[in-house]
Amino acid sequence: MIIRRLLTTGLGCGLLAVLACGLLPASASAGEPVAPQPAPKVELVLDVSGSMKARDIDGQSRMSAAKQAFDDVLDSVPDDVQLGIRTLGADYPGNNRKTGCKDTRQLYPVGPLDRPQAKAAVATLQPTGWTPIGPALKAAANDVKGGDGTRRLVLITDGEDTCNINPCDVARDIAAQGIHLVIDTLGLIPDATTRNQLSCIAEATGGTYTTVQHRQQLTSKVKQLVDRSNDTAVAPVAVQGGGSCAEAPLLKEGLYTDRETFSQNRWYRIQVKPGQELRAAVSVFDDRTVNTDYGVLLRGVTERGREIVRDDEGGTGRTDAVSAGIRYPKPHADAGTPPETVCLQVGNSFSAPAGVKTTPGLPVELSFDLTRSPHRPSDVAFYGLGRGWWLLGLLAAVGAVAGLLTGWIARWRLNTGRTD
């Protein structure tokens, strides 16, 4: 009876050991060193123009709120991020537009962060001059050039550009250079014109726009954007959805951004091959004041209009985004079967209070992923072990042998113990 228990225990331990080895990542068993990721580069571009004197952020001036936020952000910057600071409108107090539009300088160079030195530099700033956003973005793009890491600019301003260069065109030119530079914009108590301009800058480079009304909101958003620089994912690609399935752009796997007006529906298309599973997700961000009780719909249909899958999620005004996601596995078929075109409908039920601008539309982020469908009868249930029942049989056989050996050794030890 004891030997039978030992054999059973040995068999179970052997099989578990084999399964555990199969489930461990190959890199963990190989012990190969992981190559370090290239250091990301981030530059904070801060507006120090005269309008930053306004005292409308939590009872203090916009400049004071920005300084306090920078102190908190600099304390939390990851060690592997190369961070710099550039100002605009910090030095020239005069009325000459030509001179004022050149007023941008690098306050702290992009590189390893010396926190006390960077904080001391920020502490000296006083609201002074013009708002040359376009020239500042041009210079900042040069500040972060070089290297293979991600590049991100975070623009913090309270007004629109006061120079003759359209900053949205500057952002489009930067995007056209192919250096994968993302520009995120934050508007401090912005008016409609400023909001539209900053939204355009962000959209041109796959970045985000956020309205800021409180100091803590500014701190948390800048921290979030700096931390996002460590994300090695590909920057989102700007796309425009169609008014119907027939007008929808045909997309591939990836991350995309779009804008959708209130209560609008937009369409996108993607092809799914037999044996693949489509995983799609959408997030709609309320970057301005909206009415409570809203929702987002993500629906997959065939080109003929038959619904395949859908998800709808609602919100009550307590979050700044609402998301929905779907999964659609395309069954396996014989070789030569063409891919299926799936039409994806993205809709929203947002509405705005009176006086709130509804243009530009709400920011939309879409993610499309095509994976090998797990819904196959011959697949083993354990991911990473391989496919097919033959592997399960091999594992069972190896486990059985290991169990028998363990039982035999245990029996030999028992017999040896009795002899002694």
Give a topology summary.
Elements: H1 2-23, H2 26-30, E1 41-47, H3 62-76, E2 82-88, H4 97-100, E3 104-111, H5 115-123, H6 133-143, E4 151-157, H7 167-176, E5 181-188, H8 192-204, E6 209-212, H9 215-228, E7 237-238, E8 250-251, E9 254-260, E10 265-272, E11 276-285, E12 294-301, E13 307-315, E14 321-329, E15 340-348, E16 362-372, H10 389-419
Parallel strand pairs: 1-2, 1-4, 4-5, 5-6, 7-9, 8-10
Antiparallel strand pairs: 2-3, 9-16, 10-15, 11-14, 11-16, 12-13, 12-15
Helix pairs in contact: 1-10, 3-5, 3-9, 6-7, 7-8
Task: Characterize the structure shown.
Helix 7 links the parallel strand 4 (151-157) and strand 5. It is globular and about 95 Å long. Residues 1-31 and 375-389 have low confidence and may be disordered. It has 420 residues and is α/β, with parallel strands linked by helices. The two termini are 22 Å apart. It is 32% helix and 28% strand. Residues 1-30 form the signal peptide. InterPro entries: CLCR, VWF_A, vWFA_dom_sf. It comes from Streptomyces polygonati. Keywords: Membrane, Signal, Transmembrane, Transmembrane helix.
